Amino acid sequence: MPVTQQLNMFLRSKGFQLLVVCFAVLALIPIFITDSFFLFVFTLIFIFAIYAASWNFLANSGQGSLGHAVFLGIGGFASAIIGGKISIAIIGFLGVIQMPIGALSVLIQVSVLLVGGLISAGIGLLIGLACVRLKAWYLAIVTFGFSVIAGSLSSQFDSFTNGINGFAPTLFVPGGFPFYILVISFTVTSVAVMHLIMKSRMGLAFRAIHGNEAEAKMIGINTAKYKLIAFVISTFFAGIAGGLYVYFIRFVDNSIFSPTNSFLPLIMTVIGGLGTVSGPVIGAIFLTSVGQILTTQSVTQSLSTTLGPFFPKVGYVGPPLTYLIIGVILLVIFIFSPKGLTSLFRKFYNYLITEDKGAKTS
Amino acid sequence: MDITAGTIVLTLIWGVAIGCIYMLLATGLNIIFGVMKLVNFAHGQFLMIGAYLTWAISVAAGLNAYIAILVSMALVAGLGVVIERFTFRRVLGTEKLNEIFVSLGLIYIFENAALLIWGDQSQQIVSPFSGLSLNLQSFSITYDRIVAVFVVVAVLVGFGLLIGKTKIGLAMRATSQSNGTAKLMGINIEKIYMITFALGSALAAAAGGLYGIIFSFNAQTGAMPTIIAFAIIILGGLGSIRGAIVGGLLYGIAEQMATLFLGGIWSTAVAFALLIAVLIIRPNGIFGEKGE
C-alpha cells in the first residue's frame, strides 16, 4: 500500500478522530482552570506522560530499564546546549538583546527538541548494543550503571555541559499557556506514534519478544534487531521528554541523571498499569498531581504546625511527613491492587456491572 | 596527592574494608533473593536503620559499639519479621513489579520515619578504637577498618555454618532450589521465608553498624548501598554466595582505586563501568549459571 493511501486511511480512521478530540480536550483544560499552579502541574504531567510512555514502550519489548534518566538527561542537555548556541547566533545576527519570538522561533523550538531526541536515540543505540544480550535484573543494573556514568561524564566535561552548576536554557516559545500547547501536541503525537508502532507488525515482534524471547527467536524473529529498534525508539521519546522538561523548568544540571528520575517512569507506568496505552498517562497524572499537591507550601505548612511538636529533632516536618504518606499510599496500592490503578478502576467497574446484573435477575 | 606504592597499598586495604561491608549487605540481599526470589530494594534502608540503632544503643546505654551492633542486629531481624509478614508476604509470587513497588513504598516510609525520629543531622558511631590507627612506615590505617574486615569474616563464617550445617540451613537451601518440592517434603515454607528475611535484615544491620563506625550517615544513607549491593550480586551472579564475596571485593577495590587515580566523581562510575564490562562478556555474572 502506498504511503499516501495509508496516510489517507489514517486521517479517516477512528483513532485519528480520537486523537483530535484528546488534543482539543487537553487544550481546553487551562481555559477553565486559569490558576497558574494548575497550569504548571498539567504541563509537568504531560511531559512525564511522554517519559513514562517511552519507558512503557521499552518494557513492552521485554526490556526493563532502570537508567532511563540517561536519555532524559541527554535529551535535556543536548537541546538546551544546542538551543543556547542557536539563540546566541540569532541574537548576534539580528543585533538585538533578547530572542525574538514568532512563528519561526516555534519551528526552531520544535526542531531543537527533535534534535535532542535524535542525539538521545543515537546514544540509545550504543547503549542498546551493549544491553542486547542482557536480561531482567542484569539489564536493569547495567542501564542503571550507565546513568551513574552519564552523571560522572557530565561532571568531567563540565566546561562543555555546565552540568555542575547548571544553567537555564533560552526559550523560543513563551512560557505558560503557549508552552502547554507545545507540550500537549508532543504528548498526543508521541503517545499515538508509540501506540501505532505497537499495533504494527513491528509491535507484534516486540510483544512476541516480551512474551517469550526464545520462542520469538524460534519463529524467525531477529530478536537482537528488534530489541535494538525498540531501544532506539524509546530513547528518542525519552530524549524529547527531557528537552521539554528542561525547557519547562528552565534549568538543567547533573541531578537530571539521578536515580529518582530513572525510577520515576517505572513507578508511573506500573501505578497506571504496565503494557497499556493509558497506563503511563494515568500514572503520570496520578503521581505528579499527588506529588505536587502534597508538596505545596500550604499542605507542608499546615502539617508542620500541627504535627511539628511531636518531632522535635526536625526543623521542618512537612516534606518528610508528606513523603511518608506517599510511601504508605504506594504500599497500600500495591498490596491491595496488584495490577495498578487501571486494574483498580476495572475492578470497580466490573463490580458495578455485576451488581447491576444481579439486580436484573433477581 | 602523590601516588606512591604506599598509597596504592593503603587504597587496596581501604577497598577491601569497604568491599567487606558491601559484601555483608550483598549477602543479605542475595540470600533473600535466593530463597524467596524477592529483590528487596529497601535492603539499604535496613542498613541505615541498623546504623541508627547501633548509634542510639551505644549512646543511650553506653555500650561498646561492637556489642551494640549485635543488639541492633536482633532488633532489625525483628523488624524484618514484621515487614515480611505484613507487606512482602501479601505480594510474594504475584508479580515481580509488585514486590519492587512494595519495597519502594518501604523506602519512603523508612527514610522519612528515620528522619523524623533521629533528625536531619549526620551521625557517626563512636567505637572503642575511634581515632586510633595502625602506623606503618609509609601509611597508616584506622583500626576500625581492620576490625570491620574481621567482623565481616566472622559473621560470614557463622552464616556459612548456619546455611551449611544446620537443619534450618538445609531447609533454606531446599526452598531456594524448589519451593514447591520443599513444601511437599514437609518444610514450612512461610516459616523459612520469615527466617530468611530476618537473617538478611540482620546481615544488613551488621553492615550498617560497621558502616556507621567508619562513615558518617543520615536518613538517606541507605539508597546508594542498596544499588551497590545489588550491583555486587549481579556482578557475582544472582544467588551465588561465592559471587557476592568476589563481587564485593572487586567492587570495593575498583571504587577506591578510581577515587585515587581519577578523583571522587568517578568512584561509583568506574565501579559500574567494571560491572558493565563484566556483564557484556558474561551476561549472567562471574559465577552465574546459564539461564534457561
Protein described:
The complex is a heterodimer of chains A (about 350) and B (about 290). Chain A has about 350 residues and is an all-alpha fold. Chain A has 16 helices and no strands. Chain A folds into two domains: about 35-270, no CATH class; about 295-360, no CATH class. In chain A, helix 3 runs parallel beside helix 8, helix 8 (about 175-200) packs antiparallel against helix 11 and helix 14 (about 295-305) packs across helix 15. Chain A is globular. The N and C termini of chain A lie far apart (about 55 Å). A two-stranded antiparallel ribbon of chain B has the order 1-2. The model of chain B has no long low-confidence stretch (mean pLDDT about 85). Chains A and B meet through helix 6, helix 12 and helix 15 of A and helix 3, helix 4, helix 9 and helix 11 of B.
List keywords for this structure.
heterodimer, A: 362 residues, mainly alpha, 2 domains, 78% helix, disordered C terminus, B: 292 residues, ABC transporter involved in vitamin B12 uptake, BtuC, two-stranded antiparallel sheet, 2 strands, 74% helix, globular
